[in-house]
């Protein structure tokens, strides 16, 4: 529409000022055509996509009604026209399609491993039953009578298989938490061991019992019982290798976020590098504050401002060489660097002052709003039950009184991109429902919380890349360093072994604590 208005203004100007030369008209026409040609070339290279609106934390149906909302929810809504800064090129589309194909491959690999484990487990549980039933089906008349002994063995096999089934379900059949780059070595070894064990039992059963048609049915049942006992011992070995071995702390890892330097320490046991990386990521989402790239732009803008403030004027004319200019630039930069710490000090002090001031305004506004809520609750207790206001309506009623103060505080602390208006209303209604204090309501906004506190669409990284010089299936060792990379930052993990501690005992004689107090008979007056 703007292009059409420009064209109409061009035509009207041309009819009014018909005395201009053709050259001026051609220049004006080229000038009005240049933006359209620029947009046309842009549309051929990329596809422009609008910035997605802020979504609430809980993601219910009420959030879809707020899709037109932007971050300026505390002020009058204004319409902004222009080209979005987010675009996807053909290369990005190809990369996204490749990532989808890789994810499909990972899903196939995961389901293949689960299928193999399920088939092997089914074979393990059916094998003892088959050992007992096959003689009854094939040569029942030739079997020797077993009696009470076999019946007791049947009960033993049944309960042992039930215990083994429950233990296998609890240990192996779990919802996977992540897709690891390599197989879990101990689990693969256990599967191979179980397969070889069952195969050897079937081989012996086929050669010594099926071929010869052994008539000693009690010995056949005891053979099946021995198989179940051995499977229970293998299950115990799996518990030791998969669960108990990693509980004893052996290493201390330091996790540092590469962008802001935030760090945490964790104690780990005997784990492979890939499983240690998984434990680090699980603790990262719980312990680290949410990554906020807006906090990192202050230092960059300060450095750019310092460099932009340097100007060199050539007063001797264009004939002077550039050596003098470079020396002047270096000297000015040195003087600027000497005074930069003062600017940084006063800038941080001013920022802290503004944060404290807006925090105080926010606290006062929220306390007044909650006082108004208490007054409304006291008034509605006198009304009929059908006329009482629900927590959602109460939150919408008091939110405008605190919206501007909250928005200014979030902008000052650069947290506005993590809190939408709908999420704040939901949190406010939650606090009203549970009769929480203003301090409990403000806890989410005054202190940056852990990563899991916020909407997963804003922080969740679907894929992490593990970078390690050692093989990811090898165990942790002293001095090992590996990196976990995502799109915006990386986590650097340094492994240190807990040192061997030697304690010595020192015996203290109980008589050494005794002393004698001697009082003089004569005292001074």
UniProtKB/TrEMBL annotation:
Instruction: Tell me where on the tree of life, at the top rank, the source sits.
Output: Eukaryota
What are the UniProt keywords, alphabetically? Cell membrane, Membrane, Transmembrane, Transmembrane helix
Q: Give an example GO cellular component term for this record.
A: plasma membrane
Give the location in the cell.
Answer: Cell membrane
Q: Where is the composition biased (Basic and acidic residues)?
A: 36-45
Which intervals carry biased composition (Polar residues)?
74-86
Region entry Disordered: which residue ranges?
1-86
Basic residues: compositionally biased ranges: 19-35
Where it mainly occurs, coarsely classed, is membrane
User: Membrane topology for this entry?
Assistant: Multi-pass membrane protein
Give TM regions: 111-133, 153-172, 184-204, 224-244
InterPro entries on file = VANGL (IPR009539)
Q: Its family?
A: Belongs to the Vang family.
Output this protein's name.
Answer: VANG1 protein
Q: Can you name the source organism?
A: Dasyornis broadbenti (rufous bristle-bird)
Its taxonomic path starts at: Eukaryota, Metazoa, Chordata, Craniata, Vertebrata
